[in-house]
Design goal:
about 240 residues; alpha/beta; Rossmann fold; SIR2/SIRT2 'Small Domain'; 2 domains; 6-stranded parallel sheet; 3-stranded antiparallel sheet; 9 helices
Length: about 240
Amino acid sequence: MKTIVVFSGAGLSAESGIPTFRDSNGLWENYKVEDVAHPSGWAKNKELVLEFYRQRFEGVKKCEPNAAHKAIAKLQDKFNVVNITQNIDDLLERAGCVLIRHMHGSINLRKCEWHKSCCMLDGDTKYTCLFAEEHKEAVKLGDKCMMCGGQMRPDVVWFDEPVLFDFETVRELVKEVKYNDGVFICVGTSAQVHPAAALIPLFAQVKNKYIIDPNPKRIADYTLLTGKAGEELPKLAEKLLKGA
């Protein structure tokens, strides 16, 4: 079974009603990044940070997977589909996708604010809280870690924190896609934020590769599909399924 790697960003979920970061009316319009998505902001005002993520948590709960999410799930009928996403929502999961790697964590998980005393090292790349858990309500001030009593926080990656992904794993995926005549799809991301932006050049050696974006930047050897994810991804998925 051939492998398809789908690398996605905020544009994948925008059509479901989840705001992107940099567009007008985006997530940062009423907040400073350093106040709500940086360790310094957490140290300064935990209540503000938790309120910001409460709004995001509640917003995600009200949204549903769109045609793009469902198209990715449909590809699983004939392909081994691996999702690498910068999104912290669970719309891929709710669409039925199975292999999902969240580079920036998940809004549906909470973890202890500390990264040593009650955490274990996961491979060589990151610390994972032993008590990270799914939750049905947003994290609030006073929610404590069962082991050390530290304040719980959303299990998302803030600026100046390491992404939750091993790039050696990405290199192995590149080899698998390249030598198995697989496909790489980049959808809904500006590819401007590092280290996530480094994925696109890594997959440059893959023969079948696509970028889906309303305003895509021309990248050598990539097939550009100009349009919204919910319009272009279903068409591409249908084409790939017919050719499988």
